[in-house]
Amino acid sequence: MWTIIKCVLLLSVAVAAHGYVLGPRDVVFHLFTRSNPQVSEPLLPSEGSIATSSFQRTRRTIFTIHNYGEGVGGNFNAFVIRAHLLAEDVNVIAIDWSPAASFYSYALANMPQLGRVIASFIDLLDSRFGYSPDNIRIAGLGLGAHAAGIAARNINGNIPHIVALDPSLVGWTHHPEILSKDDASVVEVIHTSAGAEGYDKPLGDLDFYPNGGTFMAGCGTNSTCSHIYSYVYYAESLTTELENGKKFVGTACDSYENAINLACQGERGVIFGGSAVKRTENPRVSQPLMPNNVNLLSRSNYKSIRRTIVLIHGWMNSATSNFNSVLLRALLAAEDVNVIVVDWSSGSNSLQYREVNANAISSGSAVAQFINWLNQNTGSVLAQYHIIGHGVGGHQAGIVGSLNLPVHGYITGLDPALIGWVNNIYRFRPSDALYSEVIHTNYGVFGYLADLAKVDFYPNGGISMPGCDSNGCDHERGFQYLAESIASGGFRGRECMNYYAAVLRMCNGPRQLQMGGLEPKTGASGVYFLETNAQPPFSQG
Ligand SMILES: *[C@@H]1O[C@H](CO)[C@@H](O)[C@H](O)[C@H]1NC(C)=O
C-alpha cells in the first residue's frame, strides 16, 4: 500500500515539474441560461464571443468548475446547473477543462493555470462589459474547489461568495495556492469525504461537516460515493425552497475535532448552500483589533480583498456615537467593506480643547501606524482605504493621510474643527489623500472657516443647515448627508469661484460634482455648493 502512495506522489511531482501548458482550446466556457438549460453556448474568452451570446448583464452569474476525471457534461454539472436555473434566473457558466483533467496528478498540476484562465475571463467581463465581479459566485468540486479560490484571488476586484464542494486533499496540504478564506468575502466549504478524497481541516469562513464530514449516509465506507453527496446536497439546498423541502441547518462546533466526532452543541442557525448571497460577517457587534496583535487580527473577519473604511469620531464622541452608527449602517448596506471604528474617546472627552487637539494628533499618528501594521500583515494597500473623520476627527483623518506614504485613496473630513486649528500645521490639507473632500456644515462656529481639501462642499452655504436650530445639529449634518449619498447618491453640487461665493450661495460654475459617495472622485478639484431638504431624503437630486 505504502509503495503505491509513494509512486502517486512522485508522479505528481514529475508532472508539476514539467509544467503542463493549457492551450486555448483546453478551457471552454459553456453558458447555460433559462432559455438554454440543456444545450450550452460555448463562449470563447473574447469580447465578440460574449457580446453575441445570451449572457445577460442584468443577471447574476454562477461559474461551476468540475473535478478531475470529469467534463462539462458530467454528473456534477447535471445537478448544479439545473438547480441554479430553477432557483433563480441566472447565467451559469460551466467551465470545461476536461483535456487537462484526465488523471489526478496531471489535473492537480494544472490548477494554478486553470484558476488564472478563469480569472482573466472574469476580468474581461468586468473591463469590457462593465460586469462587476460582485455579481459572481464560483462553485467548484474537488480540485475545482481549489481552482475557484485561485480564480477569485487573481481577479481585479472581489468575488462575494465561493462554494467549495469537498475540496481535494492530496497534494494540497502544503500547496502555496490552496483554497483560503481570504479568496472571497464568504468562502463556504462542505466536507463530505474528509480525509479520503476530500480535505479534512477547515478551509473557509464556513465549513460544514454533514454527518461528521467523512461518510455520508447510504455510502458505507465508499468515499467516491460520499464525495458525490457534496454536490447532491448543494443542488438540493438551491431548490429546497421551491420544493417545500427542509434547509440544511448547521449546528455550530467549538472545534474541528467536535465536528468530525459529531459532538457539536453550539447554536443552530447557519444554513448550508442556498441561492442567496451569504454574509457571515458582523454588522452589529464589533471585533476589537489592537496594534501588533496578530492573534486578534487572524481571528477577525478582516479581509484584504475588501476596501477598508476607517471612521474617526469627533469631540465628546465615542465608538457608539451617531457618527459611527449612521455611517456604519450605510456603508455595510452599500458595499462589502471592512469598517474600522477608531475609539479615541479617552482622548476626545475633555473640555480643554488644547488637550483634545493634542490627543487628536497623537491618535492620528497611532492610527497611521496601525494601518501600516495591518497592511504588512494582510497585504492591503493604502489605495484601498477611505478614512472619514468628523470635527476634530476630521483633522485626525488628514493627519493619518499625511503620515502614511505614498498616499491613501480617499479621505473625507466632515466639518473639520475650527478652534485651535487655524495656525496648526497638522490641519487637514488637500494633499492628505489622492482624493480628499471636506463637507462644511457649520462654517466658522464648530467647523473650519476656509477650504481644506481638493474638493470642498458648502451645502446650503456651509453654515446653517435646513431643519437644524443649533450649531450642534449643523455640525452633525455632514455625516447624515454622507450616509445618504452612500445609500442613494444624489447631492449634485455646482462649482463656485471660491468659498466666498459658496457662502453667499452664488455659484454658477460650469462644473458639477456629486458630494460624498462610496468612490473617490480622483482628479476632481474645486469648491461646490448645493441645497438640501430639511429632512431625509436630504438630497434634492
Ligand atoms: C462507490 O460509489 C460509486 C458512486 O456511487 C460507485 O460508482 C462505485 O461502484 C462504488 N464502489 C464500490 C466499491 O462500491
TrEMBL record:
Q: Which GO terms describe its cellular component?
A: extracellular space
Task: Please state the span of the N-terminal signal peptide per the UniProt entry.
Answer: 1-19
- The reply on keyword Heme is no
Q: Sorted alphabetically, which keywords does the UniProt record give?
A: Secreted, Signal
User: Taking every annotated instance into account, which residue ranges of this chain make up the domain Lipase?
Assistant: 26-258, 281-538
Looking up SUPFAM superfamilies in the UniProt record yields: alpha/beta-Hydrolases (SSF53474)
Where does it primarily localize? secreted
Q: What molecular functions are annotated in GO for this chain?
A: lipase activity; serine hydrolase activity
Instruction: Name the GO terms of the biological process aspect.
Output: lipid catabolic process
The entry's localization annotation reads: Secreted
In terms of PANTHER family, this protein maps to: LIPASE, LIPASE DOMAIN-CONTAINING PROTEIN-RELATED
Q: Which family does the similarity line name?
A: Belongs to the AB hydrolase superfamily. Lipase family.
What name does the UniProt record give this protein? Inactive lipase
Q: Which organism is it from?
A: Danaus plexippus plexippus
